[in-house]
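Page 42, continued from yesterday. The earlier attempt failed because a stray header line got pasted into the input along with the sequence. Redoing it now with the clean sequence only.
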Amino acid sequence: MEQLLLRESITLDSSNIENYIHGKRIMITGAAGSIGSELLKQALQYQPAHIVAVDHSESGIAGLKLHFPLSTLSTPVADINDPDHMKRLFSEYKPEIVFHAAACKHVNLLETQLIPAIKNNIFATHVLATLAIEFGVSKFVFISTDKAVNPTSIMGLSKRICELYLQSLKTNTQFIITRFGNVLGSSGSVYPIFLDRIKQNKPLEITHPEVTRYFMTIQESVLLVLEAAAIGKSGQIMIFEMGNPLSIVELANRMITKYQKPGQHIDIVFTGLRPGEKLHEELQYLHEKTVRLYQGKIRIIESEANSQSTIEAGIKKLRKLIKTATIPELNLALKSIL
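This time it went through. Structure tokens are written below.
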């Protein structure tokens, strides 16, 4: 997959990560997902004292137990939006670092699934952040997305609200945000979709001939998350320097060249931009200030924090509205928080 990006893989001196992770108690949410499982795999290399890997998927957790049969790993099945169960886990395992990878992430799907987006992205992040403060977590690393910059989608809106909320918190717990581009090879991403269609000798569907995206590999994305824990400070946003955005048409043509069998002819068809989808993504707002580049690879961004009480009030309103409000009313309430 890395060859398709036509750029050098992003690597860092990992001594910071090793020094920080070694001997720590860690919690990973969404641990059975593409990012969470790779995060677990890489974190284990640095010999933490203990990792509690949380996911709501019973089969996913069973897979983790099978692949990582370690005494230093606990794998509870849990809903991160259940404050009582999560409080029990925080009390039992006392994590020093929380990596919050669990989320609803599929842009097109969430345009018609507003309630899961609000519950799993916003409410669950609020629950976890509250518990992190209560139990004295040292660092809380949140995985966000470039779609949170000037968001046009429900997914982007929900992630941006989480960013604003976490940046507003002034506590001993340090809340750090990482913004991903598209993660090449993660579940539901363009790479496995295109590869499956090539194998079936079906045309590749692209929404628009000019659409572009920033890309990073799963391994790179996890490296960013781990480095954010090691060097990040509260309120900071960290982004990899991913080079120029890649044309999806160009990516499709590279995959056709690489994977089609002799005699195959794979077409590309254009279907039109879908609701919530942008032609081009952005990595940061104009008002956000890049304070430095770390090892020439990580852009560290800071911005003035918003009022915690204002954002808390918006989330509280959402909790009330979600019980009875219509989808348009919820949509309006989401946008009003921004």
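Notes: The chain has one domain: 13-187+216-245+288-337.
Reminder to self: strip header lines before submitting.
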